[in-house]
Amino acid sequence: MSLNGRRLWTAVGAALALVAGIATASNAQDETVASPVASPELAAAEAVNLAGGWVGTWQAAPAAAVANTDGGYVNYAIRNIVHTSIGGQSARIRLANTFSNKPVLMGHVTLAVAESGSGPAAVRGTMRDVTFGGAKSITIPAGAEVLSDPVNLRVPADADLLVTTYTPEPSGPVTHHPLAQQTSYYTQDGDRAAEESGASFTQRTSVWHYVSGVDVRGTAAAGAVVTLGDSITDGADSTPGANHRWPDYLADRLLAQPGPRQLGVLNAGISGNRLLLDGGGFGPNALSRLDRDVLTATGARTVIVLEGINDIQQDPHQTDPQQIIAALRQVVAQAHARGLRVLGGTITPFQGWRVWDETLEATRQAVNEFIRTGGVFDGVVDFDATIRDPKNPLVMRAEFDSGDHLHPNDAGYQAMANAINLRQL
Fold this sequence. Notes:
Keywords: Signal. This protein is α+β, with helices and mostly antiparallel strands and about 425 residues long. It has helices at about 40-50, 230-235, 245-255, 285-295, 310-315, 320-335, 360-375, 385, 410-420; strands spanning about 5-10, 55-60, 65, 75-85, 90-95, 105, 110-115, 130, 140, 145, 160-165, 175, 185, 205, 210, 210-215, 220-230, 260-270, 300-305, 340-345, 380, 390, 390-395. It folds into two domains: about 5-10 and about 65-210; about 220-425, Rossmann fold (3-Layer(aba) Sandwich), CATH 3.40.50. It contains nine helices and 23 strands. It has a six-stranded antiparallel beta sheet with strand order 8-7-11-4-13-14, with no helix packed on it. Strands 1-10-5-16-2 form a five-stranded mixed beta sheet, with no helix packed on it. Strands 18-17-19-20-21 form a five-stranded parallel beta sheet, with helices on both faces.
């Protein structure tokens, strides 16, 4: 069987909620992180994190069930490779059974630092068993997610981790994130979760199974930035295994800032995702998954929203900009109710993509005008202006185009990350 394909139920305490104030600033590319403290709540939350609270370092939003997996993956050990944004002195992981109609038994789960991002071997001495309420195994109810106990493992920033799950029994459909842009590994040869060499993990997969998040503690991070989006946020057409999505480049920029104060970056993008409609393997619509994937993310303080292109270009096409605008207003309202600041990303150009026409373009322009001038967001990231061709603003600059005229390439994603004013985070 090929592997290519939150209702939160915790084993330990609930995630720390941050309360952030509203900051308004203009876009700039080279600002040092020095977000103004706009409320006593934010100052208190930052103090907790800086003293050693939990902050998210990596995330992948559960998107769908793997096709034809009604019986689950019996006797499989799956070694997911994930990439950290910030480091810490200990870690905990999240596992999801979101899209199953049956419970799944995790018979053995491990965490280790990867020897490299291109293979299943662990750095010697870093392999750790992961427990849940002190137990080595846990049954995840249908539709639920579990949070592990703290794992005593020093986690580096900007590094690859191995999250390995072993499922000994039949279950229901397997929850996954389809666009990983990262090769992971698996074996059908039983419990190899603790195998340091990775020699048994001879089969490959291009998706992430079960794992949905990694948090760290004992870090100087003041919180996390959550990026809500579609395939452009998910990194479609970026170089596989290189971590060249625009949120990855944003994490690189933040790590390069002087001083110990850092921010985690959590990617809540799902390829094909829409604001208003669910779709196949494209995940629940952004409003319905907002709480699960964004508002309850560990240490969340700022949200960057880049959604709407699929509402416009996918069938059925949404050509009433007010419908998209109303959804964006809801994202902001719900995030503000949780004390998070929200930056709005303008929708990038797509003339030359197979369905482009003037009606769809007019919708994009109207939504972008609202994002830029509506006064609803705490800041604007003008992704459109950043990667469009100045001579023909309806198309992407050739040097930023992956070739399909909708998705950027690595250089385009780098430019998008560079357009974010770090002071607004």
